[in-house]
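Colleagues,

Please find the record for the three-part complex below.
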Amino acid sequence: MLRFKAAIFTLLLLLLFCLSAAAQTAEELSDTAALEEPVYEIPRLAQVTNFEAKDSPDDAGGEIELTWDLSVDDKKEDGLVSKYVVLRSQNPTSDFHIVGVANHRDSSYIDKNLKEGTDYYYKIVTFPKYQGEVRLTREEIDPLMEQYPELTELDIKDVSMLAEYDRDIMSVFDDNILGISRVAGPVKSRAQWFNSKDLDTLIIGLTICISVVIFIGMARGGRKLFLRRIGGLQAIENAIGRATEMGKSILFIPGIQDMDDVQTVAGITILGRIAKTIAEYDTKINMPVSRSIVMTTARETIKEAYLSAGRPDAYSDDMVHYITDEQFGYVAAVDGIMVREKPATCFYLGAFFAESLIMAETGNSIGAIQIAGTAMPAQLPFFVAACDYTLIGEELFAASAYLSGEPKQLGSLKGQDVGKFIAMVFIIIGAVFATLAALTGSEDILEITNMIKSWFSA
Amino acid sequence: MNFWKALLAIDRRWIFLFVFLALAVPMFLNVDFDLSISREVQGLYDALDKLQPNSKILMSFDYDPPSAPELQPMADAIMKYCLKKKLRIIIMGLWPQGPIQANMALNRAFLEEDINRDDYVYGVHYVNLGYQAGNEFVIQRMGSAFYEMFKRDYTGNRYEELPLMRGIKNFNDIDFSINFSAGYPGTVEWVQIAVDRFHVRLGAGNTAVQAPQVYPYYNSGQVVGLAGGMRGAAELEGVFARFDGGTVDYKDKGTKYMLSQTIAHAVVMFFIVVGNIAYFVIGRKDKLKASK
Amino acid sequence: MGSDLIGVWIAAFLTLGIMSFLYKDNPWYKFSEAIFVGLSAGYWFASLFWQSLHAKFWANWSPAVQSLFQGQFDYNLLYTGAGILGLMMLLRLIPPIGWISRWPLSVVVGGTAGLYLINYLVSNAVRQIGSTIQPVVTFPESIGWINSGGVIIGNVLVFAVLIVSLGFILFGRNTTIDLPTPTKLFFFLIALVACALGTFYSLSMPLNLTGLIIFMGVFCGLIYFFFSKEHTGFFGGAATVGTWFLMVTFGASFGYTVMSRMSLLIGRIDFLLVEWLKVVN
């Protein structure tokens, strides 16, 4: 009996204690509420719906794509949402960390730099607009930022809000005032071997490459490939003739690049033809160069040309001489040669840089006939202004292919023509559709235009 | 010898003298220009304006002192704006002297009252990764990992010791990039590799020589904004001053020298017109003589 | 401060030395130029040594070799291959076996060609085709009064260019048709009427023809560089129009270059007047 009474007493005591404790807590709570009224009202936000996480397609691995439908609160005019905060974890229930932030009205996010093959889980937290004032100072925010570097993507205002709400940032997201989505996952990132977005580039690239190979094959097989007349070639003949008439020398500059530059190769190929004519007319050629390999190649080329013209005795190694690799040192020497020897004709065929105008100007001032050819877009204006005839860009390669008849050069040129043809056709078709779409305002035509455009964009 | 012939035979040193005077005399005048802002420069400003504070911006300084008169005013203005806006700045260079030019821009920006050097911690708010040899291959490798290319920064700190760089693996972690370019390697390479392969958003400051080559990239959206030559620099200073005036003095050498530039252009145009008139007048007379 | 002052004076001395070439070639210029050439060569040598040979090769290779001695394999040992290729490049200095330097050169050429093929195809061809696909005429919703003046002038110019270009394309050079004078006059009149109509049309309704100019420039430019067909008739005319566009481009480029060179001169004059003589603030 006594034991029973003691039990009831203890129970009552316990109940009393609990009650008082509860009362005290309530009092404390109401106290806090009275002391620190919330500085702003945090709305209870609706979570995002249809939240999905999947491996990012067409990537080199390490990326996961998140998509969702906007929170109802974000869809409203003057919505309440400021950001969507993305959280990630490697287990479905805990350890979620901020990995990034998407702006309101955004409904996708790509999480990057992930480990391949690892399972990840995601949550999206709908984050309200801040309506109070910034309370935290720089000194308070900086350590927070250092502790959670992910926060740098939030505005200062957002960070102060987060921090004011709860100093322990991570626990904020456990509170149900913010709209927290369901957990999506597990999802793994994988690398894809093939980027289907670049399929168009592959098709265009393959078309051009295969055409080049086919045309080279055709040229090798003895098929005659048609190339249009290149205007500059007649000018070259005339210029050599003029030098012969005047009894003066011809100056040939193959640019300042080495034999690994295709423009130098084209220049030397044309040199072969020019040298043959020179040998036939018995004119002098002077060729200062700035690369040792170019010197060797040019000597061989000229020697061969003299041989095929039947005048090997007239050839001498002195026709081609090395000056210096240094760009402006070379130009100074060439200028000196021009002023002293006053050649009747100057050829500039190859890759040129800032020296183009200096040389062409000097050549112009001594009254030489000048023929230039280069594929350096920045130098073309100077040659066009100062020379009598200029092979513009690809014309240099075309002239080289035309003169040499070499299958590789001919084939490449024809293959590129295929590329240009494709470009012209699609530009015409695309422009017609785009114009029709603009004039009629038809959605269908616009769709076709965009489809064509998408084949040619990233 | 008649007048026109004398004009064509004029000693070119006179022209040099005129151009020199046209450039030097206006320097003594202090004229404030309010230039119209081109679409390209506005695009560059808009792209910068949209960035949130603490966004990471990569600046590649691909030029050296010979091109500084055109590019340094751009770099100065953009540096001031980015610092004031509290963007995190990552500096690098594909030209050996680029990072030095970057430091000059930084020092100039810190002279502004509004941009207090003490507010910016090296390694946290800005970092200079220095020069890296390898031209476009540097950009290519940065696409997989910045660390591979910049194991140490300009002053020798290790990459992983820099708090700003800790969170940056490759272009994915960069919000915007700007390239100041005077040639090769420069904007063309950045567009071809960083933009078209790694989908970086790129703005460019170019020398006037290079600008025409870059315009097509603006038209196709491969660069979001473009400032070309000293005029571009002056426009940039103008656009920052107009929209972000405040206490920072953006209008600097770019704006100051537009008067010199303008008068020199007028002199050049005058000589071109007069020269052509003389050329045609004489040409006609010579033809008449020949026909007689 | 003292060293700064000396530096500025040296810089001014050399700047004036180089500029003196504008008067005529002289020893002062030659002296300045020689200093510049020597300095830049030395600078490049040091820079290449530290930034390429040391930073790219030695800093990667030597730790790898060290770790190999400790029994670990480091992938950076692959740099040995690069080192050997580099040495082969240097064999150019020994003429009898200089041909070996072509092997590393072929690696460089092959690698660069592969990289450039994609870069140029994507950035300079494919994406540019995409950006050329745009309406050739648009009707802007509203434009300011001053802007509309610009649009009108622009449109008149565009119409003029368009008509003359069309004439060229249809009855271009190298064609067998020799137009009699009345026909030429007729076309001239049509061009005039078109310009007048264009003006009238622009006045009543703003229209933007930028797309047309871009389209014609790209299309005719492509035709100029198309080598599989003789430039006669339509093709010849279009190619001629293509060369005009090229020439305008070159002109613009030339203009930009003038601006660039002026800026460089401004930079030097700025140095002389502001930093050296301190006569301008």
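Chain B is about 50% helix and 10% strand.

Comments are welcome before we finalize the supplementary table.
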